[in-house]
């Protein structure tokens, strides 16, 4: 084997890794775009606006002069956010109450009506789908309903909202617009104790990829963001004491919510999918290099995997006693 062949063989994996890292590298060094100028619209709609990442997104977009439709469930929190956005950035901000856990036998769920009437008469050109929550627990625990609700809130509702928004954009003849979805690095790997969360995020990521050709044809940029851990109230929902004890590990790698928002401004319309933060970037790369199976094997032996084993033992013990 000549030196040229050896060089080529060694070069191939390097090129492949660079290719895999391209969206992250592109995002890191790209300039922050002014989305007000890029999409020439007056309003942006942000779901989960009162949450950690949602608030940062609202602030960054309002700073660029965009009016904000802030979607969430808590009127008081949204009112507070809107009046702060209006005074700090001199824009218009309106609260929109919508609960994405609602279903309506697969016709149009009630939240679509709420979003539609909030948008009436407004030039809304950007939608950020950020609302979401996690539930940590064993599938053996009696909380299957709560675990299944995660799929409804994180995944199914996004189908309805994207479908409604895209139709609206097309009907209003907007030339260019954007839809951003906040997925998670969990989309790439089975996550013990958070199986419905990671599955819901995988659904959202693949859904966005599948819709992209139609969106592109309609002049709509679709961006999916895959953040690693982010310092927000997101983890307050953990009622599992054992999982809470693992929070130091999450905090060690976590970025601030403003980093996610800045990543969006750098990448929308330039790339389709971006990993975000140290865990997002290297986690995604690891999964591409060693494959989901290997990462799942590792996950099963550290962190949540270990806790899952303890929980399983607990329930197996409980069920065995009940059977006796
Ligand atoms: N924090 C992380 O480590 C991390 C990592 C990767 C991805 N993410 C994703 O980032 C997104 C934002 O999370 P965050 O970290 O900012 O957490 P957060 O502070 O808990 O915010 C979550 C937001 O989702 C909204 N929401 C929850 N359930 C809802 C429902 N049924 N209907 C409507 N809205 C609902 C909440 O609205 P209310 O104000 O009405 O409760 C809240 O504003 C989520 O999609 C999450 O999966 C987070």
From TrEMBL:
Listed Pfam families: adh_short
Compartments it resides in: Endoplasmic reticulum
Molecular function via GO: oxidoreductase activity
InterPro entries: NAD(P)-bd_dom_sf (IPR036291), Sc_DH/Rdtase_CS (IPR020904), SDR_fam (IPR002347), VLCFA-Steroid_DH (IPR051019)
Presence of the UniProt keyword Oxidoreductase in the record: yes
GO cellular component, one term: endoplasmic reticulum
Keywords, alphabetical: Oxidoreductase
Domain of life: Eukaryota
Protein name: Glucose/ribitol dehydrogenase
């Amino acid at each position: 084997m000549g030196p040229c062949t050896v060089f080529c063989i060694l070069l191939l994996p390097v090129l492949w890794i660079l290719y895999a890292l391209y969206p992250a590298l592109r995002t890191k060094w790209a300039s922050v775009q002014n989305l007000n100028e890029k999409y020439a619209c007056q309003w942006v709609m942000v779901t989960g606006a009162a949450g950690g990442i949602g608030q940062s997104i609202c602030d960054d977009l309002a700073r660029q002069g965009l009016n904000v439709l802030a979607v969430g469930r808590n009127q008081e929190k949204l009112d507070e956010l809107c009046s702060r956005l209006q005074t700090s950035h001199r824009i218009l901000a309106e609260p929109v109450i919508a609960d994405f856990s609602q279903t309506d036998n697969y016709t149009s769920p009630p939240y679509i009506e709420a979003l539609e009437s909030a948008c009436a008469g407004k030039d809304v050109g950007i939608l950020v789908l950020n609302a979401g929550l996690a539930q940590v627990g064993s599938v053996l625990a009696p909380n299957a309903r709560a675990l299944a609700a995660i799929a409804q809130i994180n995944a199914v509702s996004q189908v309805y909202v994207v479908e409604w928004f895209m139709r609206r954009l097309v009907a209003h003849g907007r030339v260019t617009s954007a839809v951003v979805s906040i997925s998670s690095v969990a989309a790439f790997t089975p996550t013990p104790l958070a199986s419905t969360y990671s599955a819901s995020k995988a659904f959202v990521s693949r859904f966005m990829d599948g819709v992209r050709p139609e969106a592109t044809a309609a002049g709509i940029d679709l961006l999916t963001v895959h953040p690693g851990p982010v310092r927000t109230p997101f983890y307050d929902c953990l009622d599992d004491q054992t999982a809470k004890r693992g929070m130091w590990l999450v905090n060690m790698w976590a970025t601030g919510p403003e980093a996610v928002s800045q990543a969006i401004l750098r990448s929308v319309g330039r790339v389709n999918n971006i990993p975000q933060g140290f865990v997002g970037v290297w986690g995604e790369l690891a999964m591409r290099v060693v494959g989901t199976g290997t990462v799942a094997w590792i996950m099963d032996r550290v962190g949540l995997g270990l806790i899952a084993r303890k929980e399983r033992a607990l329930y197996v013990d409980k069920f065995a006693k009940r059977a006796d």
